[in-house]
Design a protein that fits this description.
18 helices, 413 residues, mainly alpha, globular, 74% helix
């Protein structure tokens, strides 16, 4: 193994897809802890150890991927692969980081499908209680950083109320768009987050991705065509596979922040449409906390479990590809234009507004279905509270809390 080296400028030479595949393969097997932890692993692997990027270049990529909708940590990985070895590098980074988790989630879905989902099974009650704790922890943590003042807390509260009173995927999108407009118009410099100046202050630019701006524009056009065309095509044909692809693509294209934030969009698109029942959904969400890699591989579980002729291995592949495709297209499309966009104050204020709305939308999901399903009795509420204490104060990793809660549920519930 290479000896750690001090951070420094990225080397001038290009890399190969094979080396990208090998490095991300190790990360895909060992990266527990969620998106923030993933970014720490990436920093150690690519800035400190291998010097593929400088500190400033890495900060730029993180800022870009937090600005874009989609799975932020996975997009950072894709961007590193793209800059290192072109489109093949992007594909290698995504596959190596994502497929280990996806394979495990498909195996869990196959087991759940074979054994059936008994709503009263102790292990399932334990997983759902753990899911309630994980989501509550995410809401608390995100609220502290994304809605720490009166204006943004108000945006979060209004988004939560709107989503609870008028459920539906388009209401969530409308809340995010409205929050962005309000943020751009009303959130001034005094409302800036402490880390807002970091990306702009980074010395040096991110290396330009391989290819021309024509490729970037093509990726952005493809992103727009798919997000507009898939719903129309699914409605016109009634094909269950297209409907599954539409749900997953829309979730991957419209979620800001990644991680747990995708929960409301997935629940609306799968549970509320009857594609997957609530018990199966929460079992998959709980299992997703106990595997390495991105949480978005929950899509593979849901695709495998989907009813109406869209499930199985084909459904898992469709769901997984559709979930991550918009994030990849946005990375390819945005990198050449990021230097100009990141310095626009109005764009950064809009992002603060949408981030606050995301907190409210996730809080709405915490209430329904997570708490209504996962903490519906005194025993499961107590287990959820214990799991939350373990996460917040004992600093236990989420995967360990989930496994422990499942074991406790199997024994005691």
């Amino acid at each position: 193994m290479d000896a750690p080296a001090a951070p420094g400028p990225a080397p001038a030479r290009a890399g190969t897809a094979r080396e990208v595949l090998l490095v991300f393969g190790r990360l895909g097997l060992t990266s527990f802890g969620g998106p923030v932890a993933h970014l720490g692993y990436f920093h150690e692997a690519f800035v400190v150890r291998r010097r593929w990027l400088s500190e400033a270049q890495y900060a730029d990529l993180v800022a870009l991927c937090q600005f874009l909708p989609g799975p932020a940590s996975s997009q950072v990985g894709m961007a590193i692969g793209l800059q290192r070895a072109g489109l093949r590098g992007l594909l290698a980074a995504w596959a190596a980081f994502t497929l280990p988790s996806a394979v495990l989630m498909v195996a869990v879905a196959a087991g759940v499908g074979a054994l059936g989902v008994d709503a009263g099974a102790g292990w399932l009650l334990g997983l759902k209680a753990a899911a309630a704790a994980v989501v509550a922890h995410a809401v608390i943590t995100m609220a502290r950083s994304l809605a720490p003042d009166a204006p943004r807390a108000s945006i979060a509260a209004l988004a939560m109320i709107l989503v609870l009173l008028v459920p539906g995927p388009f209401v969530q999108v409308a809340a995010i768009v409205a929050a962005g407009l309000v943020g751009a118009a009303l959130l001034g410099r005094e409302d800036a987050e402490p880390g807002d100046a970091k990306p702009g202050a980074a010395a040096g630019s991110s290396p330009a991705p391989p290819g021309s701006r024509r490729l970037a524009l093509g990726a952005l056009v493809a992103f727009a065509v798919l997000i507009l065309g898939l719903p129309l095509l699914a409605a016109a044909t009634g094909d269950p596979s297209l409907r599954l692809a539409d749900v997953m693509y829309r979730a991957g294209a419209l979620v800001f922040g990644g991680g747990h934030v995708v929960l409301p969009l997935l629940e609306t698109g799968t549970v509320q449409t009857g594609m997957v029942d609530a018990q199966t959904f929460l079992a998959g969400y709980g299992a997703a906390q106990a595997v390495p890699g991105p949480l978005f591989t929950l899509s593979a579980f849901l695709g495998f479990s989907a009813g109406g002729g869209a499930g199985g291995l084909v459904g898992a592949a469709i769901a997984l590809g559709a979930m991550f495709l918009p994030g990849a297209l946005l990375v390819i499309g945005a990198l050449p234009f990021w230097e100009r966009l990141r310095s626009a104050p109005r764009a950064r204020r809009a992002l603060r507004g949408t981030n606050a709305a995301v907190v409210g939308i996730l809080a709405a999901a915490l209430y329904d279905p997570v708490l209504t399903q996962g903490a519906a009795s005194p025993a499961t509420l107590g287990l959820a509270v214990a799991a939350l204490v373990a996460l917040m104060f004992w600093r236990m990793p989420a995967w360990a809390v989930v496994l422990a809660a499942g074991a406790v549920g199997a024994i005691a519930l």
